[in-house]
């Protein structure tokens, strides 16, 4: 608000036109702009106000806070680096296989393939034995009939054939038992490999759990450091505002403030105008 607008508003107010809410809103908006300008000015000139005694507390507090902020940022970068390494380590541990584990899995696959072949061979032997048993049972019935009929030559021939089948059946049974033993041996070896694989996987999980712990701790540390940085940033903004307020108020009456504000005089003039406008709006609002 300019002086001319203020005078006009006072005249209108004298005729009973009171815009108190509007004046308060304008004052609040201008005060917000003023506070932002004070912070920006303070952030721009704070390094030049070391010799301004009235700003000694703010200046040295800022020096202290900036040092703390740099230290926390360094720790934050270190934590982020640890977090990235832990994520990579976890990913490698969970995704990759050790050489012993790969060898065990290859051997297991080979064993399972052999066991499948043995199982097929055993099934074929059992099928052959069933066929032989069926033929043998048929010949046995034939022998009973021939013995009743008294056909000697046919009886001897049938008995010979039955003996051959019995010999073959015994041989197949031995083959079946031999293959069954190999299958049992293979199953035992697969069980052993499964146990070793479980131990290998447990090792990976144990190593990965360390990485998970590192990730959790790093995340907690990062959150704590970011919270500290947020608090420091808030304190620094408050100190910048105090410095900007003092410098802008005293730039024309204090040599040290004028030196610090060099290059920012147009901005200070705008801030002075905002202060006057806020004051005039407050008066018009009856505050």
Can you describe this structure?
With 287 residues, this protein is mainly alpha-helical. The protein has one domain (53-253): Orthogonal Bundle (Helix Hairpins), CATH 1.10.287. It contains seven helices and no strands. The protein has helices at 3-14, 20-45, 56-95, 99-149, 152-250, 255-260, 265-284. Helix 3 (56-95) packs antiparallel against helix 5. Residues 10-17 have low confidence and may be disordered.
What order do the SSEs take from the amino end to the carboxyl end, as H and E? Answer: HHHHHHH
- Corresponding CATH architecture: Orthogonal Bundle
What structural class is derived from the secondary structure elements?
mainly alpha
The 3D shape can be described as rod-shaped
Broad CATH class = Mainly Alpha
Task: Please outline the major beta sheet.
Answer: none
Tally of strands? 0
Strand content: under 5%
Task: Give the termini distance in whole angstroms.
Answer: 16 Å
Q: Could you name the ranges where pLDDT drops below 50 across 5 or more consecutive residues? A: 10-17
User: Any idea how many domains?
Assistant: 1
Helix share of residues? over 70%
- How many helix segments? 7
CATH structural fold name: Helix Hairpins
Rounded Rg: 49 Å
Q: Could you report the average pLDDT, rounded to the nearest whole number?
A: 83
